[in-house]
Amino acid sequence: MGFKNSKVAIVGIGNVGATTAYSIINQGLCEEVVLIDINKDKAYAEALDMQHSIYFMNRNITVKAGDYSDCADADVVVITASAPMPKDSHNRLEMLTPSMNIMKSIVDSVMDSGFNGIFLIVSNPVDIMTYYVWRLSGLPKNQVIGSGTTLDTARLCCELSQLYELDSKSVEAFVIGEHGDSELVSWSSATIGGKSVSDVMEDNMSRTGDNTKDKLLQQTKEAGWDIFNRKGNTSYGIAASATAIIKSILFNENRILPVSVCLSGQYNLKNLFLSVPTIINKRGAKEIVEIKLTKDEMDALQHSASVVQDFYKDLQI
Q1: Strands across the sheet containing 195-196
Q2: What is the pTM of this model?
Protein backbone atom coordinates (compact mmCIF):
# COMPACT_ATOMS: atom_id res chain seq x y z
CA MET A 1 0.00 0.00 0.00
CA GLY A 2 1.04 3.64 -0.21
CA PHE A 3 2.19 5.69 -3.14
CA LYS A 4 2.75 2.81 -5.56
CA ASN A 5 0.01 0.65 -7.04
CA SER A 6 -2.59 2.23 -4.78
CA LYS A 7 -6.21 2.22 -5.82
CA VAL A 8 -9.35 3.88 -4.49
CA ALA A 9 -12.84 2.92 -5.63
CA ILE A 10 -15.73 5.32 -5.02
CA VAL A 11 -19.30 4.03 -5.02
CA GLY A 12 -21.88 6.74 -5.67
CA ILE A 13 -20.82 9.50 -8.07
CA GLY A 14 -23.14 12.30 -7.04
CA ASN A 15 -21.80 15.65 -5.82
CA VAL A 16 -19.93 14.15 -2.87
CA GLY A 17 -18.49 11.15 -4.71
CA ALA A 18 -17.34 13.18 -7.71
CA THR A 19 -15.84 15.94 -5.54
CA THR A 20 -14.02 13.34 -3.43
CA ALA A 21 -12.57 11.76 -6.57
CA TYR A 22 -11.44 15.15 -7.85
CA SER A 23 -9.93 16.00 -4.46
CA ILE A 24 -7.96 12.72 -4.48
CA ILE A 25 -6.54 13.26 -7.96
CA ASN A 26 -5.83 16.93 -7.26
CA GLN A 27 -3.64 15.86 -4.35
CA GLY A 28 -2.10 12.98 -6.32
CA LEU A 29 -2.85 10.42 -3.63
CA CYS A 30 -2.95 7.18 -5.61
CA GLU A 31 -2.33 5.60 -8.99
CA GLU A 32 -5.89 4.65 -9.85
CA VAL A 33 -9.36 5.96 -9.03
CA VAL A 34 -12.40 3.93 -10.07
CA LEU A 35 -15.87 5.51 -10.18
CA ILE A 36 -18.84 3.19 -9.68
CA ASP A 37 -22.45 4.31 -10.00
CA ILE A 38 -25.80 2.81 -10.91
CA ASN A 39 -25.93 5.56 -13.56
CA LYS A 40 -23.11 4.28 -15.76
CA ASP A 41 -23.23 7.28 -18.13
CA LYS A 42 -22.71 9.69 -15.23
CA ALA A 43 -19.74 7.66 -13.91
CA TYR A 44 -18.25 7.47 -17.42
CA ALA A 45 -18.65 11.21 -18.05
CA GLU A 46 -17.19 12.21 -14.66
CA ALA A 47 -14.21 9.87 -15.17
CA LEU A 48 -13.53 11.23 -18.67
CA ASP A 49 -13.81 14.83 -17.46
CA MET A 50 -11.35 14.12 -14.64
CA GLN A 51 -8.99 12.19 -16.89
CA HIS A 52 -8.68 15.30 -19.05
CA SER A 53 -7.80 17.35 -15.97
CA ILE A 54 -4.84 15.03 -15.18
CA TYR A 55 -2.87 16.86 -17.90
CA PHE A 56 -2.60 19.80 -15.50
CA MET A 57 -1.95 17.79 -12.32
CA ASN A 58 1.28 16.90 -10.52
CA ARG A 59 1.24 13.21 -11.34
CA ASN A 60 -0.33 10.81 -13.78
CA ILE A 61 -3.36 9.02 -12.35
CA THR A 62 -5.75 6.65 -14.09
CA VAL A 63 -9.39 7.63 -13.58
CA LYS A 64 -12.03 5.32 -15.01
CA ALA A 65 -15.63 4.26 -14.65
CA GLY A 66 -15.82 0.68 -13.44
CA ASP A 67 -17.91 -1.91 -11.69
CA TYR A 68 -17.75 -3.88 -8.46
CA SER A 69 -15.16 -6.33 -9.81
CA ASP A 70 -12.72 -3.37 -9.71
CA CYS A 71 -12.95 -3.40 -5.90
CA ALA A 72 -11.10 -6.72 -5.64
CA ASP A 73 -7.66 -5.11 -5.29
CA ALA A 74 -8.69 -1.64 -4.07
CA ASP A 75 -6.93 -0.32 -0.96
CA VAL A 76 -9.96 1.78 -0.03
CA VAL A 77 -13.60 1.61 -1.09
CA VAL A 78 -15.45 4.85 -0.35
CA ILE A 79 -19.25 4.65 -0.19
CA THR A 80 -21.04 7.96 -0.71
CA ALA A 81 -24.24 6.53 -2.21
CA SER A 82 -27.39 7.08 -0.17
CA ALA A 83 -31.07 7.81 -0.54
CA PRO A 84 -31.91 11.48 -1.15
CA MET A 85 -32.67 13.57 1.92
CA PRO A 86 -36.48 13.87 2.31
CA LYS A 87 -37.65 17.35 1.33
CA ASP A 88 -37.81 19.83 4.23
CA SER A 89 -36.14 17.28 6.51
CA HIS A 90 -33.45 18.28 8.96
CA ASN A 91 -32.82 14.82 10.32
CA ARG A 92 -30.22 12.53 8.73
CA LEU A 93 -31.81 9.57 10.54
CA GLU A 94 -34.87 9.78 8.27
CA MET A 95 -32.71 8.45 5.46
CA LEU A 96 -32.14 5.19 7.33
CA THR A 97 -34.62 2.77 5.73
CA PRO A 98 -34.10 3.70 2.07
CA SER A 99 -30.33 3.97 2.55
CA MET A 100 -30.20 0.56 4.24
CA ASN A 101 -31.38 -1.24 1.10
CA ILE A 102 -28.89 0.63 -1.08
CA MET A 103 -26.05 -0.11 1.35
CA LYS A 104 -26.79 -3.84 1.57
CA SER A 105 -26.71 -4.19 -2.20
CA ILE A 106 -23.40 -2.24 -2.43
CA VAL A 107 -21.61 -4.10 0.38
CA ASP A 108 -22.68 -7.53 -0.89
CA SER A 109 -21.40 -6.64 -4.36
CA VAL A 110 -18.07 -5.24 -3.07
CA MET A 111 -17.43 -8.26 -0.84
CA ASP A 112 -18.29 -10.66 -3.70
CA SER A 113 -15.33 -9.17 -5.59
CA GLY A 114 -12.94 -10.48 -2.92
CA PHE A 115 -12.30 -7.05 -1.40
CA ASN A 116 -10.16 -7.04 1.75
CA GLY A 117 -9.20 -3.37 2.04
CA ILE A 118 -10.66 -0.55 4.09
CA PHE A 119 -14.22 0.74 3.79
CA LEU A 120 -14.73 4.46 4.27
CA ILE A 121 -18.42 5.25 4.72
CA VAL A 122 -19.62 8.77 4.01
CA SER A 123 -23.33 8.01 3.45
CA ASN A 124 -25.75 9.31 6.09
CA PRO A 125 -26.80 8.52 8.74
CA VAL A 126 -23.09 7.77 8.83
CA ASP A 127 -22.65 6.17 12.27
CA ILE A 128 -25.49 3.71 11.70
CA MET A 129 -24.47 2.98 8.11
CA THR A 130 -20.86 2.32 9.20
CA TYR A 131 -22.02 -0.18 11.84
CA TYR A 132 -24.25 -1.76 9.18
CA VAL A 133 -21.33 -2.12 6.73
CA TRP A 134 -19.18 -3.67 9.47
CA ARG A 135 -21.88 -6.25 10.24
CA LEU A 136 -22.65 -6.98 6.57
CA SER A 137 -19.03 -7.19 5.39
CA GLY A 138 -17.65 -9.41 8.15
CA LEU A 139 -14.40 -7.42 7.96
CA PRO A 140 -12.36 -6.73 11.12
CA LYS A 141 -13.53 -3.55 12.85
CA ASN A 142 -10.32 -1.65 12.07
CA GLN A 143 -11.14 -1.97 8.33
CA VAL A 144 -14.48 -0.15 8.53
CA ILE A 145 -14.44 3.60 9.19
CA GLY A 146 -17.09 6.30 8.92
CA SER A 147 -16.26 9.93 8.07
CA GLY A 148 -18.17 10.79 11.25
CA THR A 149 -17.45 14.16 12.87
CA THR A 150 -14.25 14.91 10.93
CA LEU A 151 -16.01 17.70 9.05
CA ASP A 152 -17.89 18.94 12.15
CA THR A 153 -14.50 19.23 13.86
CA ALA A 154 -13.13 21.25 10.95
CA ARG A 155 -16.17 23.55 11.12
CA LEU A 156 -15.65 24.14 14.84
CA CYS A 157 -11.94 24.83 14.36
CA CYS A 158 -12.79 27.29 11.55
CA GLU A 159 -15.31 29.11 13.80
CA LEU A 160 -12.74 29.43 16.60
CA SER A 161 -9.92 30.44 14.26
CA GLN A 162 -12.04 33.22 12.73
CA LEU A 163 -12.91 34.57 16.17
CA TYR A 164 -9.25 34.88 17.13
CA GLU A 165 -7.79 35.50 13.64
CA LEU A 166 -5.75 32.33 13.47
CA ASP A 167 -4.94 29.52 11.08
CA SER A 168 -7.66 26.91 11.75
CA LYS A 169 -4.97 24.21 11.96
CA SER A 170 -3.66 25.93 15.12
CA VAL A 171 -6.89 24.97 16.89
CA GLU A 172 -7.12 21.48 18.33
CA ALA A 173 -10.68 20.75 19.39
CA PHE A 174 -12.70 17.62 18.72
CA VAL A 175 -16.38 17.22 17.98
CA ILE A 176 -17.25 13.66 19.07
CA GLY A 177 -20.24 11.33 19.25
CA GLU A 178 -22.95 11.00 16.61
CA HIS A 179 -22.59 12.97 13.38
CA GLY A 180 -25.88 14.68 14.12
CA ASP A 181 -27.91 16.50 16.73
CA SER A 182 -26.47 14.66 19.75
CA GLU A 183 -22.82 15.42 18.91
CA LEU A 184 -20.70 17.24 21.51
CA VAL A 185 -17.38 19.03 21.89
CA SER A 186 -14.75 17.69 24.27
CA TRP A 187 -14.04 21.22 25.53
CA SER A 188 -11.92 19.95 28.41
CA SER A 189 -9.24 18.79 25.94
CA ALA A 190 -9.61 21.67 23.43
CA THR A 191 -6.56 23.90 22.99
CA ILE A 192 -5.30 26.78 20.86
CA GLY A 193 -1.53 26.97 20.76
CA GLY A 194 -1.27 24.85 23.87
CA LYS A 195 -3.66 27.10 25.81
CA SER A 196 -7.07 25.76 26.80
CA VAL A 197 -9.93 27.12 24.69
CA SER A 198 -11.76 28.04 27.90
CA ASP A 199 -8.84 30.29 28.91
CA VAL A 200 -8.53 31.75 25.42
CA MET A 201 -12.23 32.66 25.40
CA GLU A 202 -12.01 34.20 28.88
CA ASP A 203 -8.76 36.11 28.32
CA ASN A 204 -9.89 37.60 24.99
CA MET A 205 -13.40 38.80 25.76
CA SER A 206 -13.19 41.65 23.25
CA ARG A 207 -12.88 39.05 20.49
CA THR A 208 -15.01 36.35 22.11
CA GLY A 209 -17.96 38.77 22.38
CA ASP A 210 -21.24 37.00 23.05
CA ASN A 211 -19.97 33.67 21.74
CA THR A 212 -20.34 30.82 24.23
CA LYS A 213 -19.37 27.17 23.99
CA ASP A 214 -23.03 26.25 23.51
CA LYS A 215 -23.39 28.79 20.72
CA LEU A 216 -20.25 27.51 18.99
CA LEU A 217 -21.55 23.93 19.15
CA GLN A 218 -24.91 25.05 17.76
CA GLN A 219 -23.21 26.89 14.86
CA THR A 220 -21.16 23.76 14.16
CA LYS A 221 -24.31 21.62 14.03
CA GLU A 222 -26.16 24.09 11.82
CA ALA A 223 -23.34 24.86 9.37
CA GLY A 224 -24.13 21.87 7.15
CA TRP A 225 -27.85 22.67 7.06
CA ASP A 226 -27.09 26.30 6.27
CA ILE A 227 -25.14 25.18 3.21
CA PHE A 228 -27.67 22.45 2.32
CA ASN A 229 -30.64 24.85 2.44
CA ARG A 230 -28.91 27.37 0.21
CA LYS A 231 -27.31 25.15 -2.45
CA GLY A 232 -28.98 21.77 -2.05
CA ASN A 233 -25.96 19.76 -0.93
CA THR A 234 -22.62 19.99 0.84
CA SER A 235 -19.71 18.67 -1.17
CA TYR A 236 -16.32 20.42 -0.76
CA GLY A 237 -16.00 20.09 3.01
CA ILE A 238 -17.07 16.45 3.20
CA ALA A 239 -14.94 15.54 0.16
CA ALA A 240 -11.89 17.19 1.72
CA SER A 241 -12.44 15.42 5.04
CA ALA A 242 -12.86 12.05 3.30
CA THR A 243 -9.69 12.75 1.33
CA ALA A 244 -7.76 13.50 4.55
CA ILE A 245 -8.83 10.11 5.94
CA ILE A 246 -7.86 8.36 2.67
CA LYS A 247 -4.47 10.11 2.68
CA SER A 248 -3.75 8.97 6.24
CA ILE A 249 -4.54 5.39 5.17
CA LEU A 250 -2.58 5.34 1.89
CA PHE A 251 0.42 7.25 3.21
CA ASN A 252 0.40 5.43 6.57
CA GLU A 253 0.38 8.83 8.30
CA ASN A 254 -0.86 7.80 11.75
CA ARG A 255 -2.85 11.02 11.84
CA ILE A 256 -5.41 11.44 14.61
CA LEU A 257 -8.88 12.22 13.26
CA PRO A 258 -12.34 12.05 14.87
CA VAL A 259 -13.84 9.27 12.76
CA SER A 260 -16.70 6.87 13.38
CA VAL A 261 -15.16 3.63 14.65
CA CYS A 262 -16.20 0.55 16.58
CA LEU A 263 -15.69 1.08 20.30
CA SER A 264 -14.51 -1.92 22.30
CA GLY A 265 -14.89 -0.71 25.86
CA GLN A 266 -13.39 2.77 25.40
CA TYR A 267 -15.53 5.47 27.03
CA ASN A 268 -17.50 2.56 28.61
CA LEU A 269 -19.05 1.77 25.22
CA LYS A 270 -18.92 -1.45 23.25
CA ASN A 271 -19.82 -2.72 19.77
CA LEU A 272 -21.19 0.53 18.44
CA PHE A 273 -19.84 3.14 16.04
CA LEU A 274 -19.33 6.73 17.19
CA SER A 275 -16.76 9.39 16.36
CA VAL A 276 -13.81 9.66 18.71
CA PRO A 277 -10.19 10.69 18.03
CA THR A 278 -8.56 7.74 16.28
CA ILE A 279 -5.11 7.02 14.85
CA ILE A 280 -5.53 6.27 11.13
CA ASN A 281 -2.91 4.40 9.10
CA LYS A 282 -2.59 1.68 6.46
CA ARG A 283 -4.40 -0.76 8.78
CA GLY A 284 -7.37 1.60 8.96
CA ALA A 285 -8.42 2.48 12.50
CA LYS A 286 -5.16 1.58 14.21
CA GLU A 287 -5.98 2.78 17.72
CA ILE A 288 -8.66 4.76 19.53
CA VAL A 289 -7.40 7.68 21.60
CA GLU A 290 -9.29 7.72 24.88
CA ILE A 291 -9.28 11.32 26.08
CA LYS A 292 -10.35 12.13 29.62
CA LEU A 293 -13.81 13.67 29.55
CA THR A 294 -15.53 15.62 32.30
CA LYS A 295 -18.61 13.98 33.84
CA ASP A 296 -20.91 16.23 31.76
CA GLU A 297 -19.04 15.33 28.56
CA MET A 298 -19.12 11.62 29.39
CA ASP A 299 -22.88 11.82 30.08
CA ALA A 300 -23.42 13.60 26.75
CA LEU A 301 -21.38 10.94 24.92
CA GLN A 302 -23.41 8.14 26.56
CA HIS A 303 -26.59 9.93 25.45
CA SER A 304 -25.24 10.23 21.90
CA ALA A 305 -24.44 6.50 21.95
CA SER A 306 -27.98 5.63 23.03
CA VAL A 307 -29.45 7.77 20.20
CA VAL A 308 -27.42 5.82 17.63
CA GLN A 309 -27.88 2.41 19.23
CA ASP A 310 -31.67 2.79 19.23
CA PHE A 311 -31.60 2.44 15.46
CA TYR A 312 -29.58 -0.79 15.34
CA LYS A 313 -32.72 -2.87 15.93
CA ASP A 314 -34.15 -1.54 12.64
CA LEU A 315 -31.24 -2.84 10.57
CA GLN A 316 -31.82 -5.94 8.46
CA ILE A 317 -28.69 -7.99 8.94
Answers
A1: 171-172, 191-192, 195-196
A2: 0.95
